[in-house]
Amino acid sequence: MLYGSIEAGGTKFVCAIANEHLEITERVSFPTTVPEETMKQVIAFFEQYKNELAAIGVGSFGPIDIHQDSKTYGYITSTPKLAWQNFDFVGTLKKVFDIPITWTTDVNAAAYGEYVFGQGKGLSSVVYYTVGTGIGGGAIQEDQFIEGFSHPEMGHMLVVPHPDDNFKGNCPFHGNCLEGMAAGPAIEARAGKKGQDIPADDPVWEIEASYIAQCAYNTTLLFSPDVIIFGGGVMKQRHMVEKVHRAFEELLNNYVKTPKIENYIVTPSLEDDAGTFGCLALAKKADLHVN
Amino acid sequence: MLYGSIEAGGTKFVCAIANEHLEITERVSFPTTVPEETMKQVIAFFEQYKNELAAIGVGSFGPIDIHQDSKTYGYITSTPKLAWQNFDFVGTLKKVFDIPITWTTDVNAAAYGEYVFGQGKGLSSVVYYTVGTGIGGGAIQEDQFIEGFSHPEMGHMLVVPHPDDNFKGNCPFHGNCLEGMAAGPAIEARAGKKGQDIPADDPVWEIEASYIAQCAYNTTLLFSPDVIIFGGGVMKQRHMVEKVHRAFEELLNNYVKTPKIENYIVTPSLEDDAGTFGCLALAKKADLHVN
After folding, report:
1. Residue at B116 is within a domain
2. Which ipTM was obtained for this model?
3. Segments forming the whole domain that contains residue A98
4. Which of chain B's termini has less CB crowding within 10 Å, N or C?
5. Which residues contact residue B82 at a Cβ distance below 8 angstroms, ignoring those fewer than 6 apart?
């Protein structure tokens, strides 16, 4: 009995195979080009395990159609990556693999990985953000993704400009929303160099932390989750989480009593593996549900 | 078989009795004074029906303790209404009525009323706000309240000041959060008169609509719910909802495809009865769950 994972990212795909204990036995990665080419590699990888493969979990870049009763369920929909627009991802897999295939966003998959194995283990409610080239978020309560007419797009929430920040924001839709002010490209545009080249004591990080703290603040008031996890490249700056704690506490002003801050606003314990483990756990859940 | 409802508001209590079809047969209201006095009236009202009463649903002003495994479950906790601080609401009822008693916030109760009988009927996911002397919000997905370390406090989300607005906000905790900028007292402080005395074409309503629209925008991106319901005194200005639609669409800039705006951002169909019907539905659910 094997489970498959597909992390379908905008720049690369990561596919993995795990045994029934969800121990990863094989993992491959290839660049995201066009569906014909990339999906051919995906299918070739999993065909090696076809006899034992019980289910596949997919976490995809989006937006995607998650409504099981929709004609375009399992499609990537209005992505700016033109070759992938209206691509029938789940249908393409189903033609070759007649097994349960779960379908959610890349950030929901990472959130689920942390919920099952990471910082959310044993908790009831988790919100996960990735802060990288974009900002995305996913929320889980009692094993269910928070969603409705579609999956969330949390990275585009509104933020109040920091008084020392002259940057106008670079979100093509909203200008100075959270993603437009705090994703990697915004940091680079503001500072004139990449985040990894900016020293930890540069004031630009205080500005960055103030936006992440606003995100944590809104998340606290709208979900009151048990934990808020911030992953992604920007949060690999290890000094960031403590700056976010301070800015968050100042904003919240003791209005509600959250769990202890060190356990409440955290970075992912699975690091970059959260998405793969999330896809695997979703695949196993789908398999157990069917059998 | 009868069900009871207690809407415990900061200024008045509304108690009701309904039959098993949740048709209201009796309703009383009295001012919120001190627990000894007000709860005596509550208990006297329900004691008339004690033999037939199967369950009571309570929707209370807060903050409240909703964790069943907490020592102070069923308490009103850190409310500014001093006489009610740390008051054991559910325990006080349980001493007299040995039946299931459900316990949630006043706004969650109203959200549940709309979810079961109103604008959320048949939908999977609902977010409800009341915009009145304060702003509160509740979210429901698949019959479960969204909550974690506590219930949400959505009314205090951050908003970006409107460029034509000189008002600095009057939230004692956060100054210019949503409640500080858009609740009834903020409208009155900004305009120098009460909302009901301000004509529909006064520019102050465009400012108000811009804040409610920001709330709808953040709610859309964080929950992607099937519907967002705005109730409360301020939304009784019938011209408001259309102003909110316009401001919301401008903010969203077609980034995600929501349901049709007229069906997506709406006012409550149960009007002021949402809370009572929500409490009754929660009471019935608890009774059916036990039996």
Report:
1. no
2. 0.96
3. 2-109+272-290
4. C
5. none
